[in-house]
Design brief:
Length: 170
Amino acid sequence: MRNGGRAGTQALHGAVDQLRQRLPPTWKVGEGPRTGEATIIIRSPDARVAQLLVVSRRRIEPKDVAGILPTIAPRRSRTSAVLVKAPFLSPRTREILADSGASYLDATGNLRLALERPAVFLEAQGSDKDPAREPRPLVTSSCKREARAIRGADHSKCWSINSGLAAGFL
């Protein structure tokens, strides 16, 4: 049985740790109060505070961004922002998030944090390829005769069914 709460807490700890590593030591980064939403609090040396509303997903595709941000956009202000976190964010997903004004963070090192107050802009390039993606098997025909015809066919010329039969491919 999976414990979704523990995985969410670990994801939040990971985000806090990554931000602590990137910000100067005089800045304080910590988890926000335990309410219904995961938040990260960033405090600058001059005591200005920003709140990051963390949206954590296992996988975010470019098409998913449009469904995530409108539900959170009304809660954004000068001292609060949205931080989207996932194990991996593709280059196109990161581009869409940046264009919409959201910050992002993934486990491969991709990071963009843009805050107005306190003024912060961090950007780091991680991996452009998903390390957890498994290679897809080569799609082949389920019929042995078709597979033999595809492997043995001369792809430099166009074959008809009759010519394939005559050549012995089918």
